[in-house]
Amino acid sequence: MPTIVDFNTVPELFYELSLKMKGKNKTAYAFKPGSNEPYQEIKWDKFTKDVYALAAYMMDAGLKKGDRFAILSENRYEWAVTDFAGQIIGGVNVSLYATLPAEQVEYIINDSGSKIFFVSTGIQLKKAVQVKANMKSVKQLVAFDRPRNEKMIEEGGVLMYEDVIEQGRQKYPELADKIAETLKSVTASDLSTFIYTSGTTGNPKGVMLSNNNIISNVKAAHKIITIGMEDRTLSFLPLCHAFERVAGYYAMLAGGAEIFYAESVDTVSKNLTEARPTVVISVPRLFEKMYNIVLKNVQAGSSLKQGLFNWGIGVGKKSITSNSPLVKLQKKIADKLIFDKLKDRTGGRVRLFVSGGAALPSEIGLFFQAAGLRITEGYGLTETSPVMNVNPVGAERYGTVGHVIPGVTVGIQRVSDGKVIAQLSGDSYPSSLSSDEGEILCKGPNVMQGYYNKKKETEEVIDADGWFHTGDIGRFVDGYLQITDRLKHMIVNAGGKNIYPGPIEDSIKTILYADQAVVVGEAQQYMAALIVPDFEALRGYLKANNIAAPGKDEEVMEMDEVKKLFDRELKTINKKLASHEKVRQFRLIQEPFTVENGILTPTMKVKRKVLEKQYADLIASIYADDQP
């Protein structure tokens, strides 16, 4: 479906939308003023005025075309105002994860040379004030929220958002023509944003994305997925991440959809029922949690309830491909008895989930499809703006990431000799191409301009032929791209076998009693797993089997019954794995892998080296006798 306006740059997207929506009382955004308060909607006319007011302030403060402005904030209305305000005067958006510590904030601000720095809450302001003296390029520090500690405002030289907006309103009349002129001068080749990769090792790199990088991706998305004026999305993935920025923000606006902000990632379940979105952009973690909640409820029910659920899943899977009147009737009954309750938990209006950022276990994709809630899985990286592939709606193939998007070419390069053994353009479907496994490459208008101030690192990932090397391993299967794992995650066991842990970990995470899992075994005789249990599910299992459970989680982990349970579950998974891939040993870990304890990146990817160092003794204990 085409976008509702025509545009070639991010500033043009805002300008054309502001004209189209003028005077129509159309909602642009909505937020919750308080946890127990209803969503407050913001119309396009107010949004337009706020953007121009802040643009006037930023221009008057000295921000020129090509200058960087930074945002350290959770997803919220002010983020969107700041983004468009800076970009319509030619500024380059530098966004930071709200979870970053002060020293990483300092690094990114200095590396990017940002001149105006916007922060959200008192927590984020505290970080900025803490390192302000070291951020030499920053001329203005602006806070969205007034901190409880008023001294921070004076001592840190902090300006308040509402004040600068008002100053901008006063300045706008004299700067209106200059703003309009600058907006029109921004070209497709001009930089739009620096998105700093979270990085599993070392300092983050600033990915330079042009207006054309982003806009080409937005337009390609609209050729694959229908987004219209009647749609609404719930925004909760970080806007500083390329996936949410393009798919959950620009692409939504380009279709005329409304953006409702979740209060936080912890309130998504509640906000889904309040916002009642039609399209939801998420990472697999949300679907894994929903799936496990459903299974827990079924497990806690009677044998009749469990039998009914299994019947419903069977009917749902049949209905995906069957046109039988009997199957259709059975599906209606299954919806009424089982699946409508799940749909109600999503707000009752979701017509499409879009998953990205990590692999979606095929079992979970099929479960949601059987329930009548389609998940379309996509694939890409920050460096590809970000989307490269999307599963076609109505022809999804779970376990793959779908077809190459229009305008983009994806190749497979054999790791052993560097030869490109297959390539497929997004404009050449339908295709039945299948290939051997290799590194996934990408060419197209979505490929980044490079890493800021890092020529060597840029040349390491973009070769002389223009291919961007993703570092992911995969193959084509009947024209669908299947991801195997990350090249750098490859484990070489003691026998020299190459093993990709990702698919094995995805299988372990479908165990009802497992919350997180990491597979280890570099230079060892066999694979092993570190597993963070789902203690709520474990206690439910113990109760259902009349086994008394101790009060502490660490004591639950040590129970023989629990260890035997995981052993049985892993043996079931091992039946589907090659001999050298089988998980022969495991250890249970009480503390979850989180951003806060340094094991996860802000995009929820495991920092394997950090984990292996932190749990070195535990891993060593697995292989102490070198016996499976």
Automatic annotation (TrEMBL):
InterPro entries xrefs: AMP-bd_C_sf (IPR045851), AMP-binding_CS (IPR020845), AMP-dep_synth/lig_dom (IPR000873), ANL_N_sf (IPR042099)
Gene Ontology cellular component terms for the protein in this record: membrane
Enzymatic reactions: a long-chain fatty acid + ATP + CoA = a long-chain fatty acyl-CoA + AMP + diphosphate
Record Pfam families: AMP-binding (PF00501), AMP-binding_C_3 (PF23562)
Nucleotide-binding recorded as keyword: yes
Domain AMP-dependent synthetase/ligase as annotated: residue spans: 24-452
Signal peptide positions on this chain: none
Domain of life where this protein originates: Bacteria
GO MF, one example: long-chain fatty acid-CoA ligase activity
Keyword Ion transport in annotation: no
Record keywords, A-Z: ATP-binding, Nucleotide-binding
Protein name: Long-chain acyl-CoA synthetase
